[in-house]
Protein backbone atom coordinates (compact mmCIF):
# COMPACT_ATOMS: atom_id res chain seq x y z
CA UNK A 1 0.00 0.00 0.00
CA UNK A 2 2.18 2.85 -1.20
CA UNK A 3 0.27 5.45 0.73
CA UNK A 4 -3.04 4.09 -0.50
CA UNK A 5 -3.18 0.42 -1.39
CA UNK A 6 -1.73 -2.22 -3.72
CA UNK A 7 -3.60 -5.39 -2.86
CA UNK A 8 -1.15 -6.40 -0.09
CA UNK A 9 -2.91 -8.04 2.86
CA UNK A 10 -2.14 -7.35 6.52
CA UNK A 11 -3.16 -3.71 6.25
CA UNK A 12 -5.86 -1.82 8.09
CA UNK A 13 -8.02 0.84 6.40
CA UNK A 14 -10.37 3.14 8.32
CA UNK A 15 -13.28 4.83 6.57
CA UNK A 16 -14.84 7.79 8.36
CA UNK A 17 -18.56 8.13 7.62
CA UNK A 18 -21.17 5.45 7.05
CA UNK A 19 -23.18 7.09 4.27
CA UNK A 20 -23.25 5.83 0.70
CA UNK A 21 -19.77 7.16 -0.15
CA UNK A 22 -18.24 5.52 2.91
CA UNK A 23 -20.03 2.21 2.42
CA UNK A 24 -18.97 1.87 -1.20
CA UNK A 25 -15.40 2.93 -0.43
CA UNK A 26 -15.22 0.34 2.37
CA UNK A 27 -16.41 -2.31 -0.08
CA UNK A 28 -13.60 -1.39 -2.48
CA UNK A 29 -10.93 -1.26 0.22
CA UNK A 30 -11.90 -4.70 1.51
CA UNK A 31 -10.18 -6.12 -1.57
CA UNK A 32 -6.91 -4.41 -0.58
CA UNK A 33 -6.76 -4.65 3.20
CA UNK A 34 -6.99 -7.41 5.74
CA UNK A 35 -9.38 -5.29 7.80
CA UNK A 36 -11.60 -2.30 7.03
CA UNK A 37 -13.19 -0.37 9.90
CA UNK A 38 -16.16 1.86 9.11
CA UNK A 39 -16.60 4.61 11.73
CA UNK A 40 -20.05 6.19 11.99
CA UNK A 41 -21.33 8.84 14.40
CA UNK A 42 -24.84 7.33 14.46
CA UNK A 43 -26.10 3.88 15.28
CA UNK A 44 -27.16 2.22 12.06
CA UNK A 45 -30.90 1.48 11.98
CA UNK A 46 -32.02 -2.07 11.26
CA UNK A 47 -34.05 -1.04 8.24
CA UNK A 48 -34.69 1.84 5.80
CA UNK A 49 -35.11 4.46 8.51
CA UNK A 50 -33.90 8.04 8.90
CA UNK A 51 -31.01 8.72 11.25
CA UNK A 52 -30.02 11.93 13.07
CA UNK A 53 -26.59 12.31 11.46
CA UNK A 54 -28.06 12.40 7.96
CA UNK A 55 -30.64 15.20 8.01
CA UNK A 56 -30.72 15.34 4.23
CA UNK A 57 -32.33 11.88 4.17
CA UNK A 58 -35.65 13.66 4.79
CA UNK A 59 -35.39 15.25 1.35
CA UNK A 60 -35.74 14.11 -2.26
CA UNK A 61 -32.95 11.93 -3.69
CA UNK A 62 -32.40 10.31 -7.06
CA UNK A 63 -29.90 7.79 -8.37
CA UNK A 64 -28.99 8.87 -11.89
CA UNK A 65 -28.35 6.31 -14.60
CA UNK A 66 -24.59 6.89 -14.35
CA UNK A 67 -24.80 6.12 -10.64
CA UNK A 68 -26.83 3.00 -11.32
CA UNK A 69 -24.19 1.73 -13.74
CA UNK A 70 -21.50 2.45 -11.16
CA UNK A 71 -23.14 0.59 -8.27
CA UNK A 72 -23.74 -2.36 -10.56
CA UNK A 73 -20.00 -2.54 -11.27
CA UNK A 74 -19.34 -2.71 -7.54
CA UNK A 75 -22.36 -4.65 -6.26
CA UNK A 76 -23.95 -6.55 -9.16
CA UNK A 77 -27.69 -6.89 -8.84
CA UNK A 78 -28.08 -3.93 -6.49
CA UNK A 79 -30.37 -1.97 -8.82
CA UNK A 80 -32.74 -4.92 -9.02
CA UNK A 81 -32.68 -5.14 -5.21
CA UNK A 82 -33.62 -1.47 -4.93
CA UNK A 83 -36.50 -1.91 -7.37
CA UNK A 84 -37.63 -5.07 -5.54
CA UNK A 85 -37.72 -3.07 -2.30
CA UNK A 86 -40.02 -0.56 -3.97
CA UNK A 87 -37.71 2.14 -5.40
CA UNK A 88 -39.61 3.65 -8.37
CA UNK A 89 -37.90 3.68 -11.78
CA UNK A 90 -38.79 6.78 -13.76
CA UNK A 91 -38.14 7.23 -17.48
CA UNK A 92 -37.27 10.63 -18.92
CA UNK A 93 -38.73 12.41 -20.75
CA UNK A 94 -41.76 10.10 -20.96
CA UNK A 95 -42.77 9.98 -17.29
CA UNK A 96 -42.06 13.57 -16.20
CA UNK A 97 -43.79 16.88 -16.83
CA UNK A 98 -40.56 18.83 -17.15
CA UNK A 99 -40.42 22.64 -17.50
CA UNK A 100 -37.13 24.32 -18.37
CA UNK A 101 -36.06 27.55 -20.06
CA UNK A 102 -39.63 28.75 -20.52
CA UNK A 103 -41.04 25.65 -22.20
CA UNK A 104 -41.91 22.00 -21.53
CA UNK A 105 -40.15 18.87 -22.72
CA UNK A 106 -42.05 16.68 -25.11
CA UNK A 107 -42.86 13.40 -23.35
CA UNK A 108 -41.34 11.03 -25.87
CA UNK A 109 -39.83 7.58 -25.19
CA UNK A 110 -37.26 7.59 -22.38
CA UNK A 111 -33.55 7.77 -23.07
CA UNK A 112 -32.56 7.65 -19.40
CA UNK A 113 -34.02 6.44 -16.11
CA UNK A 114 -33.86 7.57 -12.50
CA UNK A 115 -34.37 5.60 -9.32
CA UNK A 116 -36.33 7.78 -6.89
CA UNK A 117 -36.41 5.66 -3.75
CA UNK A 118 -35.81 7.44 -0.46
CA UNK A 119 -32.31 7.98 0.86
CA UNK A 120 -32.90 5.67 3.86
CA UNK A 121 -33.93 2.89 1.46
CA UNK A 122 -30.90 3.31 -0.79
CA UNK A 123 -28.48 3.40 2.15
CA UNK A 124 -30.08 0.37 3.79
CA UNK A 125 -29.97 -1.81 0.66
CA UNK A 126 -26.31 -0.91 0.09
CA UNK A 127 -25.46 -1.26 3.80
CA UNK A 128 -26.80 -4.79 4.14
CA UNK A 129 -24.69 -5.89 1.17
CA UNK A 130 -21.49 -4.11 2.21
CA UNK A 131 -21.53 -4.94 5.92
CA UNK A 132 -21.95 -8.64 5.14
CA UNK A 133 -18.30 -8.65 3.99
CA UNK A 134 -16.21 -10.58 6.54
CA UNK A 135 -13.34 -8.06 6.48
CA UNK A 136 -15.51 -5.02 7.17
CA UNK A 137 -16.33 -4.10 10.77
CA UNK A 138 -18.08 -1.05 12.19
CA UNK A 139 -17.53 1.32 15.08
CA UNK A 140 -20.86 3.05 15.66
CA UNK A 141 -21.73 5.96 17.92
CA UNK A 142 -18.20 7.39 17.59
CA UNK A 143 -16.75 10.40 15.82
CA UNK A 144 -13.28 11.27 14.67
CA UNK A 145 -11.65 14.20 16.44
CA UNK A 146 -8.21 14.13 14.85
CA UNK A 147 -5.63 12.27 12.82
CA UNK A 148 -2.63 10.34 14.16
CA UNK A 149 0.79 10.63 12.63
CA UNK A 150 2.70 13.58 11.25
CA UNK A 151 3.02 15.74 8.15
CA UNK A 152 4.61 12.86 6.25
CA UNK A 153 2.21 10.01 7.03
CA UNK A 154 -1.15 9.48 8.69
CA UNK A 155 -1.06 6.46 10.99
CA UNK A 156 -4.59 6.36 12.30
CA UNK A 157 -7.40 8.37 13.78
CA UNK A 158 -8.45 9.54 17.22
CA UNK A 159 -12.04 8.67 18.09
CA UNK A 160 -14.44 9.85 20.75
CA UNK A 161 -17.66 8.26 21.80
CA UNK A 162 -20.36 10.58 20.56
CA UNK A 163 -21.73 12.75 23.33
CA UNK A 164 -18.81 12.11 25.69
CA UNK A 165 -16.17 14.56 26.87
CA UNK A 166 -12.64 14.62 25.49
CA UNK A 167 -11.61 12.16 28.21
CA UNK A 168 -13.42 9.41 26.28
CA UNK A 169 -11.03 9.38 23.32
CA UNK A 170 -9.12 6.37 22.05
CA UNK A 171 -6.74 5.87 19.15
CA UNK A 172 -7.31 3.56 16.21
CA UNK A 173 -4.18 2.73 14.25
CA UNK A 174 -4.50 2.45 10.48
CA UNK A 175 -2.42 2.31 7.32
CA UNK A 176 -5.01 4.36 5.46
CA UNK A 177 -7.69 6.80 6.63
CA UNK A 178 -10.36 7.76 4.10
CA UNK A 179 -12.62 10.68 5.00
CA UNK A 180 -16.23 10.59 3.78
CA UNK A 181 -17.72 12.67 6.60
CA UNK A 182 -19.44 15.08 4.22
CA UNK A 183 -19.39 18.77 3.46
CA UNK A 184 -18.74 19.61 7.14
CA UNK A 185 -15.50 17.57 7.15
CA UNK A 186 -12.93 18.75 9.70
CA UNK A 187 -10.03 17.06 7.94
CA UNK A 188 -8.45 20.35 6.75
CA UNK A 189 -8.06 21.37 10.42
CA UNK A 190 -6.76 17.94 11.38
CA UNK A 191 -4.11 18.10 8.66
CA UNK A 192 -3.04 21.55 9.79
CA UNK A 193 -2.70 20.21 13.35
CA UNK A 194 -0.18 17.65 12.02
CA UNK A 195 1.84 20.42 10.39
CA UNK A 196 0.55 19.52 6.93
CA UNK A 197 -0.99 21.80 4.33
CA UNK A 198 -4.80 21.92 4.19
CA UNK A 199 -6.34 21.87 0.72
CA UNK A 200 -7.39 24.98 -1.16
CA UNK A 201 -11.20 25.24 -1.16
CA UNK A 202 -13.34 26.43 -4.05
CA UNK A 203 -16.80 27.79 -3.21
CA UNK A 204 -19.79 28.81 -5.26
CA UNK A 205 -23.23 29.33 -3.80
CA UNK A 206 -26.52 30.93 -4.73
CA UNK A 207 -28.08 31.06 -1.29
CA UNK A 208 -30.46 28.36 -2.48
CA UNK A 209 -32.75 26.91 0.15
CA UNK A 210 -35.28 24.14 -0.23
CA UNK A 211 -38.18 22.67 1.67
CA UNK A 212 -39.43 19.09 1.37
CA UNK A 213 -42.51 17.23 2.45
CA UNK A 214 -43.61 13.62 1.94
CA UNK A 215 -47.20 12.81 1.05
CA UNK A 216 -49.42 9.75 0.99
CA UNK A 217 -50.49 8.54 -2.42
CA UNK A 218 -54.24 8.84 -2.98
CA UNK A 219 -56.50 6.65 -5.14
CA UNK A 220 -56.88 9.60 -7.51
CA UNK A 221 -53.13 9.53 -8.17
CA UNK A 222 -53.59 6.29 -10.08
CA UNK A 223 -55.26 8.33 -12.79
CA UNK A 224 -52.26 10.63 -13.26
CA UNK A 225 -50.72 10.33 -16.70
CA UNK A 226 -47.26 11.27 -15.39
CA UNK A 227 -44.99 10.13 -12.55
CA UNK A 228 -43.13 13.30 -11.79
CA UNK A 229 -43.03 17.08 -12.12
CA UNK A 230 -39.81 19.06 -12.49
CA UNK A 231 -39.61 22.85 -12.74
CA UNK A 232 -35.95 23.79 -13.31
CA UNK A 233 -34.67 27.17 -12.09
CA UNK A 234 -32.79 29.63 -14.28
CA UNK A 235 -31.75 33.29 -13.95
CA UNK A 236 -35.25 34.41 -14.98
CA UNK A 237 -37.09 31.74 -12.93
CA UNK A 238 -35.61 31.75 -9.44
CA UNK A 239 -38.10 29.31 -7.94
CA UNK A 240 -38.28 25.59 -8.64
CA UNK A 241 -40.30 22.52 -7.71
CA UNK A 242 -39.95 18.75 -7.95
CA UNK A 243 -42.52 16.02 -7.34
CA UNK A 244 -41.42 12.37 -7.48
CA UNK A 245 -42.74 9.02 -6.25
CA UNK A 246 -41.20 7.14 -3.31
CA UNK A 247 -41.49 3.56 -2.17
CA UNK A 248 -44.41 2.73 0.08
CA UNK A 249 -47.07 4.57 -1.96
CA UNK A 250 -45.63 7.98 -1.14
CA UNK A 251 -44.66 11.13 -2.98
CA UNK A 252 -41.99 13.69 -2.22
CA UNK A 253 -42.36 17.35 -3.09
CA UNK A 254 -39.45 19.76 -2.88
CA UNK A 255 -39.71 23.51 -3.44
CA UNK A 256 -36.60 25.64 -3.78
CA UNK A 257 -35.51 29.22 -4.31
CA UNK A 258 -32.28 31.19 -4.31
CA UNK A 259 -31.30 33.98 -1.92
CA UNK A 260 -34.29 36.24 -1.32
CA UNK A 261 -36.74 33.66 -2.71
CA UNK A 262 -36.43 30.93 -0.06
CA UNK A 263 -39.48 28.64 0.30
CA UNK A 264 -41.36 28.83 3.63
CA UNK A 265 -41.65 25.80 5.90
CA UNK A 266 -45.15 26.56 7.20
CA UNK A 267 -48.19 24.97 5.59
CA UNK A 268 -49.77 28.08 4.10
CA UNK A 269 -46.46 29.52 2.94
CA UNK A 270 -45.42 26.23 1.29
CA UNK A 271 -48.64 26.11 -0.70
CA UNK A 272 -48.48 29.79 -1.63
CA UNK A 273 -44.90 29.37 -2.86
CA UNK A 274 -45.98 26.50 -5.14
CA UNK A 275 -48.61 28.80 -6.64
CA UNK A 276 -45.83 31.06 -7.98
CA UNK A 277 -44.34 28.36 -10.24
CA UNK A 278 -44.87 28.77 -14.01
CA UNK A 279 -47.99 26.55 -14.03
CA UNK A 280 -50.50 25.64 -11.25
CA UNK A 281 -50.12 21.88 -11.88
CA UNK A 282 -48.04 21.19 -8.75
CA UNK A 283 -49.95 23.71 -6.63
CA UNK A 284 -53.29 22.14 -7.54
CA UNK A 285 -51.99 18.68 -6.60
CA UNK A 286 -50.71 19.96 -3.25
CA UNK A 287 -54.08 21.50 -2.40
CA UNK A 288 -55.62 18.01 -2.28
CA UNK A 289 -52.57 16.11 -0.99
CA UNK A 290 -52.37 14.13 2.27
CA UNK A 291 -49.13 15.04 4.13
CA UNK A 292 -47.20 12.38 6.03
CA UNK A 293 -44.38 14.51 7.45
CA UNK A 294 -43.64 18.05 8.57
CA UNK A 295 -42.04 20.40 6.06
CA UNK A 296 -38.26 20.15 6.41
CA UNK A 297 -36.00 22.97 5.27
CA UNK A 298 -32.36 22.75 4.19
CA UNK A 299 -29.86 25.52 3.41
CA UNK A 300 -26.40 23.92 3.14
CA UNK A 301 -26.41 23.97 -0.64
CA UNK A 302 -23.11 25.57 -1.68
CA UNK A 303 -20.84 23.91 -4.22
CA UNK A 304 -17.59 23.24 -2.33
CA UNK A 305 -14.52 21.53 -3.77
CA UNK A 306 -11.41 20.75 -1.71
CA UNK A 307 -8.34 20.46 -3.93
CA UNK A 308 -6.58 17.50 -2.38
CA UNK A 309 -5.58 16.60 -5.93
CA UNK A 310 -3.05 19.43 -6.06
CA UNK A 311 0.50 18.82 -4.86
CA UNK A 312 1.16 20.07 -1.36
CA UNK A 313 2.75 19.22 1.94
CA UNK A 314 0.23 16.55 2.84
CA UNK A 315 0.75 13.13 4.37
CA UNK A 316 0.57 9.76 2.69
CA UNK A 317 -2.13 7.47 4.00
CA UNK A 318 -4.98 9.99 3.92
CA UNK A 319 -7.69 10.32 1.26
CA UNK A 320 -10.93 12.28 0.97
CA UNK A 321 -13.98 11.20 -1.01
CA UNK A 322 -17.70 11.88 -1.23
CA UNK A 323 -18.81 15.30 -0.05
CA UNK A 324 -15.68 15.62 2.10
CA UNK A 325 -13.96 16.09 -1.26
CA UNK A 326 -16.61 17.72 -3.43
CA UNK A 327 -20.17 18.71 -2.56
CA UNK A 328 -22.75 20.02 -4.97
CA UNK A 329 -25.91 22.06 -4.91
CA UNK A 330 -28.34 19.22 -4.05
CA UNK A 331 -31.01 20.51 -6.43
CA UNK A 332 -29.19 18.77 -9.31
CA UNK A 333 -29.49 15.33 -7.69
CA UNK A 334 -25.88 14.26 -8.28
CA UNK A 335 -24.60 13.30 -4.82
CA UNK A 336 -25.51 9.60 -4.69
CA UNK A 337 -24.33 8.98 -8.23
CA UNK A 338 -21.00 10.75 -7.74
CA UNK A 339 -20.43 8.69 -4.57
CA UNK A 340 -20.82 5.53 -6.66
CA UNK A 341 -18.68 6.83 -9.53
CA UNK A 342 -15.97 7.82 -7.03
CA UNK A 343 -15.92 4.32 -5.56
CA UNK A 344 -15.41 2.91 -9.05
CA UNK A 345 -12.56 5.38 -9.56
CA UNK A 346 -11.03 4.27 -6.26
CA UNK A 347 -11.26 0.63 -7.30
CA UNK A 348 -9.73 1.29 -10.72
CA UNK A 349 -6.86 3.33 -9.27
CA UNK A 350 -6.01 0.64 -6.73
CA UNK A 351 -6.32 -2.17 -9.28
CA UNK A 352 -4.24 -0.49 -12.01
CA UNK A 353 -1.24 -2.79 -12.58
CA UNK A 354 0.65 -0.13 -14.53
CA UNK A 355 1.01 2.42 -11.73
CA UNK A 356 1.81 2.37 -8.05
CA UNK A 357 -1.28 3.74 -6.26
CA UNK A 358 0.33 6.57 -4.33
CA UNK A 359 -1.90 8.77 -2.19
CA UNK A 360 -1.72 11.68 -4.63
CA UNK A 361 -2.41 9.48 -7.66
CA UNK A 362 -5.47 7.90 -6.05
CA UNK A 363 -6.69 11.28 -4.82
CA UNK A 364 -6.47 12.64 -8.34
CA UNK A 365 -8.55 9.74 -9.62
CA UNK A 366 -11.19 10.54 -7.00
CA UNK A 367 -11.11 14.19 -8.05
CA UNK A 368 -11.62 13.32 -11.71
CA UNK A 369 -14.70 11.30 -10.79
CA UNK A 370 -16.31 14.50 -9.48
CA UNK A 371 -15.28 16.86 -12.27
CA UNK A 372 -18.27 16.52 -14.62
CA UNK A 373 -20.85 16.86 -11.85
CA UNK A 374 -19.02 19.96 -10.57
CA UNK A 375 -18.98 21.49 -14.04
CA UNK A 376 -22.74 20.94 -14.34
CA UNK A 377 -23.68 22.19 -10.89
CA UNK A 378 -21.25 25.08 -10.53
CA UNK A 379 -21.61 25.95 -14.20
CA UNK A 380 -25.36 26.41 -13.84
CA UNK A 381 -25.17 28.14 -10.46
CA UNK A 382 -22.66 30.79 -11.48
CA UNK A 383 -25.31 32.33 -13.75
CA UNK A 384 -27.92 32.58 -11.01
CA UNK A 385 -28.65 36.03 -9.53
CA UNK A 386 -26.62 36.75 -6.42
CA UNK A 387 -24.17 33.87 -6.84
CA UNK A 388 -21.02 34.32 -4.76
CA UNK A 389 -17.72 32.53 -4.20
CA UNK A 390 -14.15 32.25 -5.37
CA UNK A 391 -15.13 29.82 -8.15
CA UNK A 392 -16.94 32.62 -10.00
CA UNK A 393 -13.79 33.88 -11.71
CA UNK A 394 -14.61 34.30 -15.43
CA UNK A 395 -12.47 32.82 -18.18
CA UNK A 396 -12.12 33.92 -21.79
CA UNK A 397 -13.97 30.81 -23.03
CA UNK A 398 -16.94 31.26 -20.70
CA UNK A 399 -19.05 33.65 -22.77
CA UNK A 400 -19.15 31.63 -26.02
CA UNK A 401 -19.65 28.43 -24.02
CA UNK A 402 -22.51 30.01 -22.09
CA UNK A 403 -24.11 31.22 -25.34
CA UNK A 404 -23.89 27.71 -26.78
CA UNK A 405 -25.27 26.06 -23.62
CA UNK A 406 -28.18 28.52 -23.43
CA UNK A 407 -29.06 27.67 -27.01
CA UNK A 408 -28.62 23.94 -26.34
CA UNK A 409 -30.95 23.97 -23.32
CA UNK A 410 -33.57 25.78 -25.38
CA UNK A 411 -33.29 23.20 -28.16
CA UNK A 412 -33.28 20.19 -25.83
CA UNK A 413 -36.96 20.44 -24.93
CA UNK A 414 -38.11 19.78 -28.49
CA UNK A 415 -35.22 18.36 -30.51
CA UNK A 416 -34.72 14.60 -29.87
CA UNK A 417 -31.03 14.65 -30.81
CA UNK A 418 -30.19 17.55 -28.50
CA UNK A 419 -32.52 16.30 -25.78
CA UNK A 420 -30.95 12.86 -25.66
CA UNK A 421 -27.40 14.24 -25.58
CA UNK A 422 -28.32 16.68 -22.82
CA UNK A 423 -29.95 13.97 -20.69
CA UNK A 424 -26.98 11.65 -21.15
CA UNK A 425 -24.60 14.29 -19.82
CA UNK A 426 -26.87 15.23 -16.91
CA UNK A 427 -27.27 11.51 -16.09
CA UNK A 428 -23.45 11.18 -16.01
CA UNK A 429 -23.46 8.49 -18.69
CA UNK A 430 -21.74 10.60 -21.36
CA UNK A 431 -18.95 13.20 -21.16
CA UNK A 432 -19.67 16.90 -21.49
CA UNK A 433 -17.70 16.89 -24.76
CA UNK A 434 -20.52 14.89 -26.36
CA UNK A 435 -22.64 18.05 -26.33
CA UNK A 436 -20.30 19.41 -29.01
CA UNK A 437 -20.40 16.34 -31.27
CA UNK A 438 -21.09 17.32 -34.91
CA UNK A 439 -24.66 16.01 -35.02
CA UNK A 440 -25.58 17.69 -31.75
CA UNK A 441 -23.82 20.95 -32.62
CA UNK A 442 -25.63 21.11 -35.98
CA UNK A 443 -28.98 20.67 -34.25
CA UNK A 444 -28.09 23.31 -31.65
CA UNK A 445 -26.83 25.88 -34.15
CA UNK A 446 -29.17 25.32 -37.11
CA UNK A 447 -32.11 23.20 -35.94
CA UNK A 448 -35.48 24.61 -35.09
CA UNK A 449 -35.89 22.56 -31.92
CA UNK A 450 -39.59 21.83 -32.43
CA UNK A 451 -42.58 23.91 -31.44
CA UNK A 452 -42.37 25.28 -27.89
CA UNK A 453 -44.87 23.82 -25.40
CA UNK A 454 -46.18 26.50 -23.09
CA UNK A 455 -48.70 24.22 -21.37
CA UNK A 456 -47.72 21.04 -19.51
CA UNK A 457 -48.02 17.93 -21.73
CA UNK A 458 -50.22 15.71 -19.57
CA UNK A 459 -50.09 12.80 -22.02
CA UNK A 460 -47.18 10.96 -23.60
CA UNK A 461 -46.49 11.30 -27.27
How would you describe the overall organization of this protein?
Helices cover 30% and strands 22% of the residues. With 461 residues, the protein is α+β, with helices and mostly antiparallel strands. A hairpin with a 3-residue loop joins strand 15 (239-246) and strand 16. The strands form 5 sheets. Strands 4, 5, 13, 14, 15, 16, 17 and 18 form an 8-stranded mixed β-sheet that branches. The chain is built from 12 helices and 21 strands. Residues 1-8 have low confidence and may be disordered.
Please render the helix and strand layout as text:
Blueprint: E1 12-16, H1 20-29, E2 35-40, H2 65-74, H3 78-84, E3 89-92, E4 96-100, E5 103-104, E6 112-115, H4 119-130, E7 136-140, E8 142-149, E9 154-161, E10 169-173, E11 176-179, H5 187-193, E12 201-204, E13 209-216, E14 228-231, E15 239-246, E16 250-257, H6 267-274, H7 281-287, E17 290-291, E18 296-298, E19 303-306, E20 318-320, E21 326-327, H8 335-351, H9 359-381, H10 398-412, H11 416-426, H12 438-446
Parallel strand pairs: 1-2, 1-11, 2-7, 4-14, 11-20
Antiparallel strand pairs: 3-6, 4-5, 8-9, 9-10, 12-19, 13-16, 13-17, 13-18, 14-15, 15-16, 19-21
Helix pairs in contact: 1-4, 1-8, 2-8, 6-7, 8-9, 10-11, 10-12
Task: Name some characteristics of this structure.
globular; disordered N terminus; 22% strand; alpha+beta; eight-stranded mixed β-sheet; five-stranded parallel β-sheet; 461 residues
